Amino acid sequence: MTELLVGTRKGLFVLEGDEDGPFAVTARAFAGEPVEYAMRDPRTGRTLAATTSPFYGPKIWVADDPAGEWQQAHGVSLPEGGEESLARIWVIVPGEEDGLLYAGGDPGVLFESRDGGATWQLNRGLWEHPTRPDWSPGNGGLCLHTIVPWPGDPGRLLVAISAVGVWLTDDGGATWRHSNEGIVPRYLPEDAPASPIAHCVHDVRRAARRPERLFMQFHDGVYRSDDGGGHWIDVATDTDLSSDFGFPVCVDPSDPDSAYVIPLVGALDRTTPGGAVRVWETRDAGATWRPRSEGLPQEDAYLTVLREAFDTAGEGAALELYFGATSGDVFGSRNAGASWFTVADHLPPVYSVRAA
User: What confidence tens digit (pLDDT) does each residue in 201-235 have?
Assistant: First the structure.
């Protein structure tokens, strides 16, 4: 049985499907409210969700059963007396210690919980970084949208912020350094002054069996790192990719050479190129890419897939891939992208998809 937690503009939907059968909506929570992100902690089975109320602002909620009662977490706020306010929680990720969770949000903030999500504290090392006055937001805000732990080492962590790039810590978040070497922000004017932090990263995923390898979807580029994010290599130029603009990226946990992206036309037209929905796959670490589209709409389907709306379950030949679109459609593959089927349609615009 595969469970999908689908965050949408109008609530959280829980979808379940067995190995060969269709998916069905088995629960809904936060009806009518934007759910930016939801995930199930694999260590405890508890579900966490990030909502954005137009009246009460961003909140994190925790439940033992997504169909049951939800409890509001505490501490998800910025220091009092400042000029900035918390706009949104983008992502929640398990850490490498029991009970440890991270949450990223706007304006470029990282929260930490050490009790399974009940209470949270602001990471002061990033909040008080001396370069913060020079940080600029991307089109979606100053969002810390990507959190990538290092397997087995709670001191090492990568985060990505739009549009401030990649940041690394080796001491559990006490100190941070930016790490954007090799990335070329082609969207900036040629006469713009060079900046080591003006980089609009869209998503980063780690290869589970080779943790020093990472794949990145950039604002206008796809990159790979083989040294834990210290340096980035262009893997989109001179390939067959229909576009190097997109939001999410996924990696096969069993194969550090295999990754998937969903290209969009570009910054102005954030839809699937030519109205054909295609997931592009590399099996050689980005040297070549090929489209996988059997079962996906190929005519007049101008979809937008957001950065948190693509996820995997399983690995290898049985790798399951799932993504949702702002059209309210959710698609899935149970054979590593060789063929696709419709998981759900007519949902509200999809913000996030997480498989469990």
Answer: 999 999 999 999 999 999 999 999 999 999 999 99
For residue 341, list its beta bridge partners.
332
In order, the DSSP letters of 277-294 are: --EEEESSTTS--EEE-T
**Residue 194 DSSP one-character state:** P
Q: How far is CA 254 from the centre of its chain?
A: 20
CB atoms within 10 A of CB 213: 21
Residues 201 and 204: their CA atoms lie apart, in Å, by 8
CB 267 within 8 A of CB 284: no
CA 259 to chain centre: 14
Three-state DSSP at 354 gives: strand
Please compute, for residue 284, the number of CA atoms within 13 A of its CA located in the half-sphere on the CB side.
6
Q: Write down all domains in the chain, each with its CATH number in brackets.
A: 2-355 (2.130.10.10)
Contact 328, 268 (CB under 8 A): no
- Mind listing the pLDDT tens digit for each residue in 255-302? 999 999 999 999 999 999 999 999 999 999 999 999 999 999 999 999
> What's the CA gap between 103 and 278, in Å, rounded?
30
Three-point CA angle 22, 27, 30, nearest 5°: 135
Q: In whole angstroms, give the CA distance from residue 205 to residue 135.
A: 23
The average confidence (pLDDT) of the chain is 96
Q: End-to-end distance of the chain based on CA atoms, in angstroms? A: 9
